[in-house]
Every structure is written in C-alpha cells, then in structure tokens.
Amino acid sequence: MKSEEIKKRIAAQKAYFAAGKTIPVECRIQSLKRLERVLRLHEEDLFQALQQDLGKSTAESYMCEIGLVYSELHFMLRHIKKFSREKRVATPISQAVSRSYTKPSPRGTVLIMSPWNYPVMLTLDPLIDALAAGNTAVLKPSAYAPACTRALEAIIKEAFPPELVCVVTGGREENQFLLDADFDYIFFTGSQAVGKEVLRHAAEHLIPVTLELGGKSPCIVERTADIELAARRIVFGKFLNCGQTCVAPDYICCDAAIAEPLKKALQHEIVRQYGSDPLKNKTYGHIISKKHFDRLSALLKESHIGYGGKFDDTALKIEPTLITPCSWDSAVMQEEIFGPLLPILPYHSLEDTLRRINAREHPLAFYLFSKDRAVIRSVTERCPFGGGCINDTIIHLATPHMGFGGVGASGIGAYHGKAGFDSFSHTKSIVDKKTWLDLPMRYQPYTPLSEKLVRMFLR
After folding, report:
1. What pTM did the predictor assign?
2. For a disulfide at 142, which of 14, 116, 254, 397, Cβ 3.0-4.6 Å?
3. Is 246 a catalytic residue?
4. What angle do the packed helices 121-132 and 67-84 form, to 10 degrees?
5. CA distances (Å), 376 to each of 221, 332, 388, in order?
6. What is the distance between the alpha carbons of residues 416 and 72, in angstroms, rounded to a whole number?
7. Is 212 labeled as catalytic in the residue annotation?
8. Contact residues for 309 (Cβ-Cβ < 8 A; gap 6+)
9. Continuous segment of H or E residues that includes residue 447
10. Rounded Cα distance, 63 and 175, in Å
C-alpha cells in the first residue's frame, strides 16, 4: 500500500474522530454488534485462512482464536455502558462545594499492529477494546499470515467505514511509515526486537504504547505436583499451535527426584494427544515460514534430544520434542524458542532455580505445578512475571475478567476486558466547582489568617 493512501486514511480517521462520531456509547455498541454479525458470516473464511497459514484445525481455531474474540465481544457489550460512565470520587475539604469525578475518554486514532501466530484473535481482541473505548483504528496484520490478512481485510471492509476502522497491508516499508505517522496510541504485539523499534519510534513522537511481547516463560514442576496431570497440561500448553504461542511454557525446571517419571509422563501425553507419528496428524499445525523452521532446526541440531526430534522440511513440521539432558548454557536456553522444542532442566535446589530465573529478563508467563501452598505463595510473591497459572498452563489469558500483559522485557501495559478498555482510554480527572461560594484565603495578598486557614484545610 502506498504511503499517500495510508496518509489519507489516517487523516480521514482523525477527522471522523474530531467530529465526535465515536463518542456516543450507543454508536460504539452498534459497531461491536456489526463486527459480530460480519464475523459470523465469515467464520468459514477464517477457518480456511488459519488452516492455510498455520495448519490449525477448526477446533483449535475456534478454541484459541475465534471463540475468544466472541468472548471479548460479548463481555464488552455487557459492560461498555458501565465502563464508559463518569465515576464520582471524594472531594477534599479544601475543595469544598465541588463535585469531583473521573471521566474515561477515547485516545483518538490508534494503531494496532498484530503478529502472525494468532492473527485473528490478536488483531480483533485489541480492536474490540479500542472500539468500546471510542477510538478509530488502523490495523496492521502481519505479512507472514497472508491468508488471514486477506480474510480480516474483507471482514473489516464489510463491517466498518474506513474512517472508523481500516486495514493496512504490506511489510516493512508500510510498518516503517505507520510508525512515523502521528497516531494517538500504538498497540503492538510481537517480538522483543521489533517491540524496541516500536517504542523508539513512539518515543520520538511522544505516543503512548502498549507492548505485548514474549520471552522465556518458565514452568516449574515441584516434587509435590501431580505428575500425570502436570504432563497433560504442559503438553497441551507447549505444543498448541506447534509451540508458536507467546505464553507457551518455554522450558521446564523440575525436581531431580521426579525428572524421570515426568519425562515418561510427557512422552505418554505427546502420544495420547498427537499420536505416535505427529507429523502425519492432520490437526497438528506447522511452522509459519521456512525462516522460522530453519531457526528451530538449527536449535534441534545443537540439542540433545530425549524424545521426538523428527521433522518434515517440505511441510514445515517439527514433531513435539523433549530436549534432555539440558543445561542453562545450552543454545536452546539463550532465546525464546517459539516452537515445539521443550527443554527439561532437573534441579536439586528450588531456591537456586528461582535465583537463576529471576536473574533473567522477566517472562510474560510463569507456570508452577505444586500442591505445597507455602511454595506457591513464595514463588508467586518473589518472581516477577506478567501472568501465569498454578497447576495449569496458558488459560490465564482466556478470560476478560483479568488483564493480560507483560512486565519489563516481556511488555508494557495490559488488555482484555476492563484492562483493555482502560488501555485505550485516557481517564480525565475533573473538579466541578460551584459558583455560589468562593473562599478568599487562596488569593493574594496572603495574611497570617489566610495562611492559618490553608494549613488547617490541608492537614
């Protein structure tokens, strides 16, 4: 898409917002309802696009993408009126005869940049939050998921006028132009490397941002854990979408006393969930591109494979693979894996393991399998992370009742539900002062009496 066309679209959205067209809550509700109607008409198109780009089955596509979009939509439709209301707050005695309140206001024209791994959900969820808050939005899906981009572009064109929501397609050139444009807010989901570039550009224009990044999310299996259940839930969370999930368990740290039983349980669960030959499983997806496949293949070659390890370079498939033995210095432990490779690191000291984890960049997610409440309390209090689960994986992001986001290197800000509405809003603080009383003590000239009264009121 040419830069001049993009510029015109942004200008049209800014004019639409300036005219106050997105302010009435009823207009926002109608926009969300239109989106749902069009989505239901094009569900099959989205299923086919997700199958084409990532090899996702219909069941996985609905569970992890389309169904979550509907969940966010329905939550917003139920709560948007409440979220949009002014909220009265207490007024200090020094400002007596006033009404103090906060008022959520839309940020304006926002840019939403989404990744390729969950191209539908990670485009439409933030869009729902942005529309509910009263913004106009420019969407920039990833060029790595072309079928999903085409489907999303068709849906958005059918659901909205371009001055409210539009899709910009293309690659690096378009990304660069968008990051140099004058948006009121940027919402980015993707890698840490690109996130740094987004933040740098935003800083030059003083544009506020939300960054949903990734990182190496640890999974601790403590000696009191239910090993079979832990294995089932870890295999589900790790190998969903072939491990191409920002909150997938990146590696396991387990008590050395249960390392062997856990490994056997993980092998059993891989076979149970994906079959004895996962490469022939039609519901098991593929790696997004040759570039990412080659990166994962290189990690495989440098690792000690404890189970799995087969791949099909023509279909871009790598079967679920356990890497064991493994050490903190292994190549696979130096970067976010983002694929179906699962290192297992046995430990003799949980305390030492927590120190090692905390010395690294703060992860987006943290998982702990344990029945020991003291261990659970200690880990959740002492370890910085975006969000996580006790005795499960990844499900913490599948609710609109809690915010989802990272901390430190894994992200800035949060969304989903009320947190998403707040991210795409600016909350104004307003004092409505009455005119029938005006205390003179704040005005010049100051006297000993006025100072005494000020001290009394501001105690």
Report:
1. 0.94
2. 116
3. yes
4. 10
5. 11, 27, 12
6. 7
7. yes
8. 300, 319, 321
9. none
10. 30
Active-site hit among 60, 65, 72, 212: 212
Residue reference for tokens 């990304």: 175
Q: How far apart are CA 198 and CA 58, in angstroms?
A: 33
Which one from 64, 148, 242, 246 is the annotated catalytic residue?
A: 246
pLDDT in tens, the chain (459 residues): 678 899 999 999 999 999 999 999 999 999 999 999 999 999 999 999 999 999 999 999 999 999 999 999 999 999 999 999 999 999 888 788 889 999 999 999 999 999 999 999 999 999 999 999 999 999 999 999 999 999 999 999 999 999 999 999 998 899 999 999 999 999 999 999 999 999 999 999 999 999 999 999 999 999 999 999 999 999 999 999 999 999 999 999 999 999 999 999 999 999 999 999 999 999 999 999 999 999 999 999 999 999 999 999 999 999 999 999 899 999 999 999 999 999 999 999 999 999 999 999 999 999 999 999 999 999 999 999 999 999 999 999 999 999 999 999 999 999 999 999 999 999 999 999 988 888 788 888 888 888 888 888 777
CA distance 38 to 70: 12
Which pair of structure tokens corresponds to residue 272? Answer: 């149970």
Return the exposure string of 157-186: e unless at least 16 CB atoms fall within 10 Å of the residue's CB, then b: eebbebbbbbbbebeeebbebbbebebbbb
In 3D space, the residue among 115, 117, 364 whose CA is nearest the CA of residue 244 turns out to be 117
Under a CB-based contact definition with an 8 Å cutoff, are residues 149 and 113 in contact?
no
